[in-house]
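Below is a complete specimen:
___
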Amino acid sequence: MKKILILFITIQLSISQLLAIDSTISITGKFINVATNGTDGDIWNFETTNKEKYKVVISIPNMGELESKKIHLVKENAKLELIGEFYLLGKEKNLTVRKIIQ
């Protein structure tokens, strides 16, 4: 029983390490429209210059006090570079934005 428990813990640690791989990316493109309005941020549909579609999360808590001062740049058809953490939900590409580059 102890061997099974140790093997299970080892496998879980390995999976945790794989999930901790840095997934920070940069994408450039334009904001299409707001998909969801939240209380402290919004989810936008975003299309890259390569025509890839993303859902991007723009919020003050995710961006921090200084970077969130650039949120006013986010509007339909605004062309910007975004930096943040990439993740998939099913086949949908998502980005939690940490920085906005003009």
In short: The first helix runs from residue 2 to 19. The longest strand covers residues 24-37. Residues 5-18 have pLDDT under 50 and may be disordered.
